[in-house]
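Tutorial, part two.
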Amino acid sequence: MALTTISLSSPTFSSSSSSATILSQTKASIFSHHRLRGKNLPSSLFTSTTFFYNKTSTRTKQFSTSFKIKCSAASSSSTLPSALLFDCDGVLVDTEKDGHRISFNDTFKEKELGVTWDVDLYGELLKIGGGKERMAAYFNKTGWPEKAPKSEEERKEFIASLHKRKTELFMALTENRLLPLRPGVAKLIDQALEKGVKVAVCSTSNEKAVSAVVSCLLGPERAEKTKIFAGDVVPRKKPDPAIYTLAANTLGVDPSSCVVVEDSAIGLTAAKAAGMTCIVTKSGYTADEDFLNADAVFDCIGDPPEERFDLAFCGSLLEKQYVS
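Running the prediction step on this input gives:
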């Protein structure tokens, strides 16, 4: 029996809230935002409850609650995914804040555009899928730099050139292995490949950048067996399901037999719209996003002894799909 731990946290409450209100809202939060489809969670799954008292600088008291739920899946389960599909940024590697954002800013600096994306601003911009689309949306809203061309066609070429340089800078970071894999990624991929489960990476990022992450950080043996769908391979990017639909068609698998690992709300939306099961592993920028429709939510995949889930757990989600 493979055991998996999900750590859940409820919202904070001010000291003026009644105990009944706290308990009522906590229960609603847990079961509406962290659920496994097809199963009611019995009270015996709750192994611990901890209340914390915090005093903020404004002297308001807050309570927060954390719960640990152990989910088990039989390691001998006959059900396995036909394909395991990973997003890249935020799932394989937590690249956004210290990878892509830095590379965008270095590109803007090189081109003397007078633009800097700070941590909070970049978090908002991540709601737009695709780097070229992100820059265009930003300039359309805030105004184009003086050095930018005036015609729409020339601006497309300008954005493309910026993105090409940004990708070169990001690849240098990746090739120097300055961005480590997230915990459990290599383990889960190895489990899938060992069982004959197809593995692919489906990302809105530039294909060269994704290939660099896969080949440099996953290693040549895993990279050789991992299909990449990235960048402009589809006309519409996440939250549109096109990239996941393309992956299923190319791999020759039924979307309902695929398990996707995503970290963002737009990625989750894309996976579910493609008819796939989706596990969310939160990343630095996406921790507070709404994952109501996810089949399971974790802080990471995790390596033993801090493993959160494994391939058998992915299979158990598909079994719940069939019996629900």
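The first strand starts at residue 2 and ends at 9. In part three we will examine how such features are distributed along the chain.
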